[in-house]
Amino acid sequence: MDSADRANILVVDDLQEKLLVFKTVLEDLDQNMIFVRSGTDALREVLKHEFAVILLDVNMPDIDGFETAALIRRHRRSAHTPIIFITSYADELQTARGYSLGAVDYILSPVVPEILRSKVRVFVELHVLQKRIARQADERVALAASAAALQVAEESTRRSAYLSELSHSLSGVLDVSTGLHKLMALAVPALCDAAAVVLVDERMRVQHAVRRRDGASRTVDVDPDGLTLAELEALNDGLPAAGDPAAAGTVVRGALRVVPLCHGDRVLGAMLLQGPLTPLGDALLDEVAMRAAIVFAAARLHQSLQLEIAERRQAEARLEEASRRKDEFLAMLSHELRNPLAPIRNAVEVIRRKAPNDTTLKWATDITDRQVRQLTRLVDELLDVARISQGKIVLQPTVLDLGALVAECVEAQRPFISARRQLLTLALPAAPVSVQGDGARIQQVVSNLLSNAIKYTQDDGSLHVAVAVDEEGRAVISVRDNGMGIEADLLPRVFDLFEQGHRALDRSQGGLGIGLTLVQLLVKLHGGRVEALSAGPGKGAEFRVYLPVHSQPTDAAAQGEPAQALPAPGRRILVVEDNADVADTTAAMLTLSGHEVRTAHDGIEALAMVEDFAPDIVLLDIGLPMMDGYEVARRMRQLPATRHKLLVALTGYGQAGDRQRGRDAGFDEHLLKPVDPAVLDALIARDLPDLPSAPAPAPAETGGTAAAGKATLYAFRRP
Fold first, then answer.
1. Out of 52, 408, 417, 421, which residue is the most buried by the measure of CB atoms under 10 Å away?
2. Cα-Cα end-to-end distance for the chain
């Protein structure tokens, strides 16, 4: 291009990086680019030069784009200079204001290079043409030159106005159907006399179709099966294959013109135009198709996201419902399993207290008691895993001596170790190792690991339990055995729920596969971690628990054994239980302890007995017929005879919500079936509001703890 024909383009933006972007996009036009960073500088340049087009940022620090445009319009030379506003946001009010100041278009930032370059090129070409016409004005008749220039200007204005209206109408459209109807309203009759738009899916199947004719009052939705044979054949010829938009281009088949709608490598559909195009349609058809494709791609993406959000919400709702049903099932499972365990355990205790000193009978009751305790532990483990996973377990942390705690766990497992003639060595540190945690839960962790080691180690095998502090200052509990070991492929999954290694058909090891999962969850709650080590099958295994060390000294009370309650004086106890076996065995066990016991099998019967019997303690089941235990407790709290008495929930429902409902109803304690007789005796023996308390016994000596300042190694030999 001749230097005399070069047009001046003024770009006004306060950000240097955006000016660089405009320079990069527009430098292919080979025009004179002038960049300024304020409205004041822009006005100074307008006085110096004549511009083909002005790209004006709306938001600037000294004078905003609207004020700058108003000042530019006051100068005769720039009164009609095309102004394109560049903005990141444009609502209807802002757009109207811009058009009132003579703006020809709005371009949203970030700009699309092709669109910006195309628009600027139109005005540059118009400006260059006007300059040429001006130079030829002396050679031609002034009227003819003016008419030609006016015609070109009007045509360019019509194109710009149409594109501006198209952009404004389709901007922000997120619904495909709405976008189709708006496009048709702008296409007919501006581009042609009749048109249709068809959108297809990835398999080139028709999803949406609309049709409009000149003179029609509205756009008509067309069923996919309602397209004519000519339209279907034209689509088949004009649409490129999916993933090959390079082949896209206008195809004329008879009276139909097919303009593909492509976005990236996706074929979205096509515009079908019938009859001759208007001059505007002939000039802007490809631009219209490109803008429509962008709008429909965005609308489809929005609809896809909305559908995905709805599906996720439905999935979350289903998961919440499944979780709720699982909680209900676990609560019912707990209740139904504990109900038969309670009378078995009570009956064993009655036999133990009443039977003569017979070795065989003692052996049988001990076996029964151990198996009941094992079954109770399995039920508790299953429920504990569910509670921890739902965040329903709250720790009761105290400062503990980890060595003493581990020694107690080892002592509790001695009968099982002796039964299998195993050798266990226990190594404790010379000084106490203090940790802060829930003593009962840490004992649960150690007992689970030691129980697993006993089960998975052969008779006459060896076990080693140690407590130490590692180089990083963490407390470490190690449980090692020389048993059956862990397979290499199982080792990374050993803590997964219900995960178990190879089990013999007789399942001699027992268990549900949840013990190690529970161990890991409890250790994490204490801020620690647990790891499993094994050289392979037949080479034993080692489990290490790492816990943060607490710097403060341990609570002396936490290191000792709990005080053993002395036998309580005879008290009047009312047992309310609809299960006759549970009620009768509980009453028999308490009667052998010297208490006066009565039983009731429903809430109404219990309330009728209260006034005459005046119990000191009420052991009340929750799941009663006709009137549940919560309502019975509330009514007992209103009766003078039981207003201040000890109400104990003795039930199979043990989740956090059940305990809270019990407290709200007036229960003092919440015991799970089957209750440990020792725990029940201790509860009965505790202070009551109107009864003398049992004298406090001296603390029992703690077995298996190290003397101060001496490292200790314990070995439990085979009998």
1. 52
2. 109
Classify 241 as helix, strand or coil.
Answer: coil
The Cα 446–Cα 439 span in angstroms is: 11
Q: How far apart are the C-alpha atoms of 79 and 566, rounded to whole Å?
A: 106
Cis amide bond preceding 189, omega within 30: yes
CA distance 373 to 679: 14
Q: In a 3-state reduction of DSSP, which class is residue 616?
A: coil
CB–CB of 280/190 below 8 Å? Answer: yes
469/356 Cα distance (integer angstroms):
50
Compute the distance between CA of residue 607 and CA of residue 637 in angstroms, rounded to an integer.
11
Which amino acid makes up residue 602? Answer: D
Tell me, what's the pLDDT at 3? 67
Relative to beta strand 541-548, strand 529-533 is antiparallel
Residues forming beta bridges with residue 618, ordered by sequence position: 574, 647
Please give the helix or strand (H or E) that residue 335 lies within, else none: helix 279-354
Q: Can you give the pLDDT at residue 184?
A: 87
Distance CA 605, CA 709 (A): 61
CA distance 280 to 158: 8
- How many CB atoms are closer than 10 A to CB 312? 10
The size of the chain, in residues, is: 719
DSSP classification of residue 430? S
CA distance linking residue 528 with residue 405, whole number of Å: 17
Torsion of Cα atoms, 8 then 9 then 14 then 19, to 10°: -110
pLDDT for residue 466: 95
Alpha-carbon span 365 to 371, nearest angstrom: 10
Burial 56-84, CB ≥16 within 10 A → b, else e: bbbebeebebbebbebbeeeeebeebbbb
User: Can you say whether the dihedral through the CA atoms of 403, 409, 412, 415 is positive or negative?
Assistant: negative
pLDDT for res 544: 95
pLDDT for the residue numbered 648: 93
Pick from 372, 471, 478, 489: nearest CA to 427: 478
CA angle 246, 252, 254 (to 5 degrees): 155
CA–CA dist 599, 611 (Å, integer): 14
Give the C-alpha separation, 412 to 454, whole Å.
13
The token pair that represents 215 in the structure block: 């003179």
Secondary structure of residue 84 in the 3-state scheme:
strand
Chain center to CA of 632: 41
pLDDT recorded at residue 393:
64
Does the pTM exceed 0.85? no
Parallel, antiparallel or unpaired: strands 194-200 and 266-274: antiparallel
> What's the confidence (pLDDT) of residue 695?
38
β-pairing verdict for 398-401 and 434-437:
antiparallel
pLDDT along the chain (719 residues), means of 10: 77 90 89 91 90 88 86 86 84 81 82 87 86 74 72 83 85 84 87 89 86 85 85 81 64 81 84 86 86 87 88 89 73 68 78 75 77 68 58 74 91 88 92 89 89 91 94 93 90 70 44 71 90 91 93 49 52 90 86 90 92 92 89 93 91 76 91 81 68 37 35 46
- At residue 665, what are phi and psi to the nearest 5 degrees? -80, -15
